[in-house]
Write a structure and sequence with these properties.
The chain is α/β, with parallel strands linked by helices. It has 3 domains: 3-171, Rossmann fold; 175-352, Argininosuccinate synthetase, chain A, domain 2, CATH 3.90.1260; 366-395, no CATH class. The protein has 14 helices and 14 strands. The strands form 3 sheets. Strands 3-2-1-4-5 form a 5-stranded parallel β-sheet, sandwiched between helices. It is elongated. Bound molecules: arginine (ARG). Residues 89-90, 120-122, 173, 175, 182, 268 line the site of arginine. Arginine binds at residues 89-90, 120-122, 173, 175, 182, 268.
Length: 400
């Protein structure tokens, strides 16, 4: 029988998919569960896949490659979609797609499969990433094909003895990894409704956050966070530590009405404590180590980069080209940022770098001022020349 590798989360849709693919396509199903920092019991998921009829069930711990090859490149670029969403799910999909393709090659499978519906961004990210890496590999998306409502999917599961996960009782649709957690559906679909407390699992309500602020100092090397309070940490450990302390202070709650690639607006809530703190700290370090022109240009790149990630184009040539630009721009983004966490907020308390362009003797108003003020009138004379000329020839009063 032909084989297919299914990205398996252990949830309702992908559990039903194991049986559905076997029946509909007469294929042997191999499951692949990728750990990118979601909290589930991986061995239980593996066992469940085998019990539901998978011929093999793989679990891959991909947290290090996720952080080092996807999350940190995005952080270096300050890639935040529409100024709000740190792209956690969007960064995870190309990596899962890559592992699906690798597993399919190793196992001689003719197809890969995922549990996305036909309405979201994730289907695009999976399909385009797989197509980029293995153009000939077939892609099966059962939940996009089977046309079952949620109730029908539950009935299908019941009639085939597929255990229904407790998460099915939740009114929300949730996706999470170590860069963030997204929550949609239920009452959140009314953008006027404030998210109820039960939406937030990671972050403390700012109301209940400690009355005393915490400070942490994050060290960066060429744009990559490498230490907390002077202690060197791996990317995963560092992200987890920032996550813990920021969550405790209620930092990283995001309410975003976003523009999906498939043309609809959707209201999504995110919890992204580590992403919020690290992005802010990174930007604070860039503010002292990059020139004004570099900062302005980086902003343009950041928004392009974020769109590419969101729109499923991680493996595109342009994304790779931008990554080269970003790496070059980070050459001197090395130093430390002191961050204050307090009642849902993340403040920058201090920043320093051996490459800081901030020059005290130029900035100060105290003694030691080295700024040559006598050069200012000449500078202003030339700077204002076009405005003076224009207002003489085209009197301002006559313009609307
Ligand atoms: N709206 C976000 C995005 O498109 C989050 C998607 C979460 N995915 C999910 N299957 N619930 O990246």
């Amino acid at each position: 029988m032909d084989k297919v590798v299914l990205a398996y989360s252990g949830g309702l849709d992908t559990s039903v998919a194991i049986k559905w693919i076997k029946d509909k396509y007469s294929m042997d199903v191999i499951t692949l569960t990728v750990d990118i920092g979601n909290v589930a019991d991986l061995e239980a998921i593996r066992q469940k896949a085998l019990k539901l009829g998978a011929i093999k069930a793989f679990v891959i711990d991909a947290r290090e490659p996720f952080v080092n090859s996807f999350v940190f490149p995005a952080l270096k670029a300050n890639a935040i979609y529409e100024g709000q969403y740190p792209l956690a799910s969007a960064l995870g999909r190309p990596l899962i797609a890559q592992l699906l393709v690798e597993t399919a090659k190793k196992e001689n499978a003719v197809a890969v499969a995922h549990g996305c519906t036909g309405k979201g961004n994730d289907q695009v990210r999976f399909d385009v990433s797989v197509a980029a890496l293995a153009p000939k590999l077939r892609i099966i998306a059962p939940a996009r094909e089977w046309n079952m409502t949620r109730e029908q999917t539950i009935e299908y599961a019941q009639s085939h003895n597929i255990p229904i996960p407790i998460t099915v009782a939740s009114p929300y649709s949730i996706d999470e990894n170590l860069w963030g957690r997204s929550i949609e559906c239920g009452v959140l679909e009314d953008p006027w409704t404030e998210p109820p407390d039960d939406v937030f699992i990671w972050t403390k309500s700012p109301n209940e956050a400690p009355d005393k602020a915490d400070y942490i100092t994050i060290g960066f090397d060429e744009g990559i966070p490498i230490s907390i309070d002077g202690q060197r940490l791996s990317g995963v450990a560092l992200t987890q530590q920032v996550h813990e302390i920021a969550s405790r202070h209620g930092v990283g709650r995001i309410d975003h009405v976003e523009n999906r690639l498939v043309g609809i607006k959707s209201r999504e809530i995110y919890e992204a404590p580590a992403a919020t703190v690290l992005t802010k700290a990174h930007q604070a370090l860039e503010a002292i180590t990059l020139s004004k022109d570099q900062l302005r240009f980086n902003n343009i790149v950041a928004s392009q980069y974020a769109d590419l990630i969101y729109n499923g184009l991680w493996f595109s040539g342009l994304r790779q080209d931008l990554a080269c630009y970003v790496d070059s721009s980070q050459k001197y983004v090395t130093g430390e940022v002191k961050v204050k966490l307090y009642k849902g907020n993340c403040h920058i308390a201090g920043r320093k770098s051996p490459y800081s362009l901030y020059d005290y003797s130029l900035a100060t108003y105290d003694k030691g001022d080295a700024f040559d003020k006598s050069a200012s009138p000449g500078f202003i004379h030339i700077w204002g020349l076009p405005v003076r000329t224009q207002s003489q020839i085209q009197p301002r009063a006559q313009r609307r």
